[in-house]
Amino acid sequence: MDKILVLDFGGQYDQLIARRIRSQHVFAEIRAYDRITPEEIRAAGYRGIVFTGGPNSVYAENAPRIDAAVLALGVPILGICYGHQLLAYLAGGTVAPSKEGSEYGKTALTVKPNVLFRDVPEHSVVWMSHTDAVTQPPSGFSVIASTEHCPVAALCDENRRLFGVQFHPEVTHSEYGETVLRNFLFGVCGCKADWRMDDVIEETVAQYRQKLSGKRVLLALSGGVDSAVAAALLHRAVGDDLVCVFVDHGLMRKGEGDLVEQTFSRDFGIRLIRVNAAERFLEKLKGVTEPEQKRKIIGKEFIRVFEEEAKKLGKIDVLAQGTIYPDVVESGKGDAAVIKSHHNVGGLPEQMGFSEIAEPLRTFFKDEVREIGEKLGLPKALVWRQPFPGPGLGVRVIGEITKEKVSILQEADAIFREELENADLPQQANQYFAALTDTKSVGVMGDARTYGWVLALRAVSTDDFMTAAWTRLPFDLLERVSNRITNEVPGITRVVYDITSKPPATVEWE
Ligand code: XMP
């Protein structure tokens, strides 16, 4: 399998670059610039290297740089933005603050005929975001593109297969960005487009079958996408040597616990232990109203229950986890086998005596994990599950949690989700749910006065959940939801829609 190294110099688009390469069916791996040496790059046999962007100036004292020996490996390089400047700098060129100041946004680009620009018209639009620029190309390099304010918008040394582009080919605003990346992968590096999900699944299964042969494997199933897909994959590899423990804290959404049990136990025939611990969690949460304290209690109790179950199973060799690629890259841990600190479950304990960790999804992005899940036959409701906090409805029942309030919220939330999923939305909602406030309000039903809870609906549109806009849901939809909830869910007298974005609010209410 051909693979490309994405050398990360601190840019915000490193993950996107890797995704773009993988979508061309070539495997791409991100490594931090200071965690791999030219010698290791050579030994790993990469077909090509991409230097990513980054916020620094190549001349800054602590600028991220790699040994110039990387240019002499004979492995093709494509430098992007900062990576383009770094390439020029390492090869002996000059970089300086652009005379015209920063260039930002959509920019007209003019290219010269070159293998990197095959099928790219002479004039097109690219996305620029830089302050420095290459002012003097290194010797042996030629300038192959320019913009009005950036005379060296791309350069290359075709003989050594070294290329740099000041613009960002990985973003969709660059009209021919995909073509440029394809030209690099196939025209320059000679990669084969042979990274196919079906093969990857087979390879991963075979690899784990061998690696885990004769060992007992334990996996904590949370109901989330990652652990579900990891379980299905490992089950293919080791069958009954895999045991899944599903701690049901009673704070899942309506029907979710049963769906997990049905899917894994009945449909897949996986050895699944469902621990119905709802009463136990409620007991611990009695009288607790402070959100962070709720989170801590739920996380701690989760571990306690999990440990108790694990103990009952006797000696287990391997702890399996649904760690995915962004977790690995973000934690910057390279290959270290760390116990993922699931912020949802508070982190599984390191001292449980497992001799090994298995993380079959650690090379995959979220959408790839979903694709694997679909191919393995997991139900859509699990594979396309929206993000759901580990403490579950515990942080959506505002104030003290009681069994009755959880059940009211489950019903109302199910109605909202059902209506929203059946509606034609003008704007996609990435996360949507109901929260039960701790306010009671007066209502009237028939001729009688009622007094019940105020329910809040929340829907947000976001790419990364760091910031989010409240979703412009159609009024007709909101009306239908409100009618159904007040009619069908006893205990709720009033429904409100949350129109606060993040910031200043968070997505969750607690
Ligand atoms: P906030 O509320 O911080 O949420 O804007 C951002 C995203 O994180 C999820 N979230 C959590 N996930 N444990 C989790 O696993 C938590 O304690 C937790 N709190 C918030 C939230 O649902 C949203 O997707």
Write a concise keyword list for the protein shown above:
Rossmann fold, GMP Synthetase, Chain A, domain 3, alpha/beta, 3 domains, five-stranded parallel β-sheet, 32% helix, binds xanthosine-5'-monophosphate, globular
Polypeptide structure, described:
The protein has 510 residues and is α/β, with parallel strands linked by helices. It has three domains: 3-188, 3-Layer(aba) Sandwich (Rossmann fold), CATH 3.40.50.880; 197-383, HUPs (Rossmann fold, 3-Layer(aba) Sandwich); 403-497, GMP Synthetase, Chain A, domain 3. It is built from 14 helices and 20 strands. It has helices at residues 14-22, 38-44, 82-90, 177-188, 197-211, 225-238, 256-267, 278-285, 291-312, 325-331, 366-375, 380-383, 403-422, 475-488; strands at residues 3-8, 27-32, 48-51, 77-80, 94-97, 103-111, 123-130, 132-136, 142-146, 154-157, 162-165, 217-221, 242-248, 271-276, 318-320, 356-358, 431-445, 448-461, 469-470, 492-497. Helix 5 crosses helix 6 (225-238), helix 6 (225-238) crosses helix 11 (366-375) and helix 13 runs antiparallel to helix 14. The protein is globular. The structure holds xanthosine-5'-monophosphate (XMP).
